[in-house]
Structure formats: C-alpha cells, structure tokens
Amino acid sequence: MNEDNIREIGFFVQSGNTEITIPDDIKLFLNKLLKESYNKESYLLNYIFVSPEDITELNRQFLNHDYPTDVITFDFSEDFGVFGGDIFICPDVVFQNADDFGAEAMEELIRVMCHGLLHLLGYNDRADQERLEMLEQEEYCLAMFRTR
C-alpha cells in the first residue's frame, strides 16, 4: 500500500445494542492530534464498536483474559506499510466506567479512543511507569480535546 496522503479514520458499529454516534468534530480532533501532536502525516485507523460479548471474545482470544474490557488495539502498520490499526471499543463498558468514575460519557469515550491510538504510537500500560506515561498522554489528549 502506498502511504502517500492516506489520512483515513473510520468509525464502524460491528455489534452491540448501544447506539453510538460520533460527531464530526471528533474525527477532526483526531486528525489534528495525529498531525500536530504526534507528527503523523499518513495513517489509517478503524474504530470498531462492539458488544461486551464480542470484546470479551477478542480479549479471550488475543490476551487470554476472560472478561469484557473497554478497548483492544491491533496494530497493522507493518502489514499495510502505513501507520494504523483497528481499535475495538465496547461502548457499554466505556459508559459504565464513566458512570463508575463520575466522568462525562463523551470524555470517557475520547479517553478510550486516545488510549487505543496511544498503543499504536508505542505507549504501553503493563508496568507502573508505562501506565503513568500512558495516563499523562491521555490527559494531554483530553486537554487538547477540551480546547479544540
């Protein structure tokens, strides 16, 4: 695949009962974030919204965890020759987490969308120091979103 001028971000509902609408300004925000904050000129991202059952199956199959999670990221940059990946998000878990944390639902969704993107950018959250760096980057992204 030729990576020249590929700047695609797609949003897809694969499964689940939660109706999710992504406002146009979120796509604009992600484009700006990628270009201005992370120096990405070419990218191909797919945000795929799934049910708790489907994210549990992905979690089980790829991470050996038998529970639903909010986000799972698959990097295909090497396979396609352009920065990108599939970011699976379970809105039911995201919105429950927002409720549990006393967060605004849309901000929690943005946090999770950025979390998946940060994994593609090389950030991890396995060790304590990695989690701290990831959290700092999430907060940076949310601050950028709030001031867009």
Secondary-structure topology with pairs:
Layout: E1 7-13, H1 24-37, E2 43-49, H2 52-63, E3 71-75, H3 77-80, E4 84-89, H4 91-101, H5 105-120, H6 128-146
Parallel strand pairs: 1-2, 2-4
Antiparallel strand pairs: 3-4
Helix pairs in contact: 4-5, 5-6
Compact description:
This protein has 6 helices and 4 strands; from the N terminus they run E-H-E-H-E-H-E-H-H-H.
Description:
It is a single chain. With 148 residues, the protein is of the alpha/beta class. The protein has a single domain, classed as Metalloproteases ("zincins"), catalytic domain (Collagenase (Catalytic Domain), 3-Layer(aba) Sandwich), CATH 3.40.390. Helix content is 51%, strand content 17%. It contains 6 helices and 4 strands. A 4-stranded mixed β-sheet has the order 1-2-4-3, sandwiched between helices. Helix 4 packs across helix 5 and helix 5 crosses helix 6. The longest helix has 19 residues. The chain is globular and about 40 Å long. The termini are far apart.
DSSP summary, beta strand count? 4
Shape-level CATH architecture:
3-Layer(aba) Sandwich
Mean pLDDT reading: 93
- Principal-axis shape equals globular
* Number of spatially distinct domains: 1
- CATH top level assignment: Alpha Beta
Strand content: 15-25%
Cα distance spanning the termini: 32 Å
Backbone structural class = alpha/beta
Can you tell me the CATH topology?
Answer: Collagenase (Catalytic Domain)
**Poorly predicted runs of 5 or more residues:** none
The named CATH superfamily: Metalloproteases ("zincins"), catalytic domain
Question: Strand order of the main beta sheet, please?
Answer: 1-2-4-3
Number of helices: 6
Oligomer: single chain
